[in-house]
Amino acid sequence: MKTAMIGLGDIAEKAYLPVLAAQPALDLHLCTRNEARLDRLGDAYRIGARYTSVDDVIKAGIEAAFVHAATDAHPEIVEALLSAGIHVYVDKPIAYTLAESERLVHLARAQDRSLMVGFNRRHAPGYAGLAAHPRHLIVMEKNRHNLPDNPRRAVFDDFIHVADTLRFLAPGEITGTSIRTRVRDGLIEHIVLELSGDGFTAIGVMNRMSGASEETCEAMGEGAKRRVVNLGDVIDYQGGETLARRPDWVPVAGQRGIEQVSLEFLAAVREGRRIDAADALATHALCEEIVQAAEYRAGVQAAEGAVSASG
């Protein structure tokens, strides 16, 4: 099956390319504008099909594509691929705005093609295990070391994993949403998201002014607790503490769910199953709500600052 990888940045090189290059029935094509990187990776994996433009890789007759380009480039690339009848796997997010994401999801449906969004944490063994654990209370943290950022970029490029994981782990219908943010000088410093429903609460926290970059997720209920640290170590608490470390030889792609989600997409293409991005779009809608809350907070602070300065 002719499949393209478009965009060859760090994540594509370190996680996706080793997985795809190892698939025996895959005719892999590489595409990036960076010719030095294109040749280096093409030589390393003995891949001769190399392109510097999306139009050229489309003309090669590919059936499916993995899009790992920068988020700003997603809409143009994804639209071109879907319009050409190509199934698309795209790194989260689909786009930086809900409206643009909705447009591309509708295009995929009109073209009867899969559009799968790379929410790999749903497939990571540690988090998949949490989905089978009692979880009346879920708490997830994904922190960054001293890295305040533009609210839209921080939410759609980074916090989106927290929002989607909470939605994935929620054991019932979500009927309540609460959002709190700290914004200073136009940059978001922390986010707290609370989702709730009948008998459960899910809380997601991102502190971009933290002392460390780290990720943890906990599920608690029925007298038991399970904690996953950096998608690897799994700690169970039930009166005592039991630690299960990731086996030494498990590749990072398998630990983080990247191998599993990639193979799910390829299997759907081979079997003629269409993957719809409706659920992924719900996560994008939640992220848009968070951005609007942060931008509103920034506007209030700016107005208060102007009043203080004038008087």
What does this entry look like structurally?
The model has no long low-confidence stretch (mean pLDDT 94). The protein is globular and about 55 Å long. It has an eight-stranded mixed β-sheet. Strands 3-2-1-4-5-6 form a six-stranded parallel β-sheet, sandwiched between helices. Helix 4 packs parallel to helix 5 and helix 5 packs antiparallel against helix 10. By secondary structure, it is α/β, with parallel strands linked by helices. The protein contains ten helices and 14 strands. The chain has two domains: 125 residues, 3-Layer(aba) Sandwich (Rossmann fold); 124 residues, Dihydrodipicolinate Reductase, domain 2 (2-Layer Sandwich), CATH 3.30.360.
In short:
The chain has helices spanning 10-21, 35-44, 54-59, 74-83, 98-111, 125-130, 151-169, 252-255, 258-271, 278-310; strands at 2-6, 27-31, 50-51, 64-67, 87-90, 115-117, 137-143, 176-184, 187-197, 200-207, 214-221, 224-229, 233-237, 241-244.
